Amino acid sequence: SFSCRPRTASERILLFLLLAVCILCAILVILLCQQKSPPLLRGRRNVFDCIKDTESCQNTSCSHVCLTETCVQAAATLLKNMDPIVSPCEDFYQFACGKWAQHHELPSDRSYYDTFSLMKDELKAKLRELLEEPLCEEDSNATISAKNLYVSCMNERAIEELKEQPLLNLLEELGGWPVISSNWSEESFDWVLQIARLRQYNNDILLGQWVAPDGKNSSLNIIQLDQADLGLPSKEYYIQGTQQLEAYGRFMVDIAQLLGATLEQAINDMREVLEFETVLANFTIPSEERRNYTAIYLKMTLAELQEKIPLVNWTLYFSIAMPLELTDDEEVVVYAVPYLLSMSDLVTNTSKRTVANYILWRFVYNRVSNLDKRFLAKQQEYYSALYGTQAISPRWKTCTVYVNKNMGMAVGSLFVKRHFNEKSKETAEEMIKDIKTAFLELLDEVDWMDGETREAARQKAVLMSEKIGFPEYLMDPQALDEEFEGIEFKPDTYFENVLLNLKHYSRKEQLKLRTPVDRMQWVTSPAVVNAFYTRSKNFITFPAGILQPPLYHQNYIRSLNYGGIGVVIGHEITHGFDDKEGSKASAYF
Question: The Peptidase M13 N-terminal domain covers which part of the protein (predicted)?
Answer without folding.
Answer: 88-471
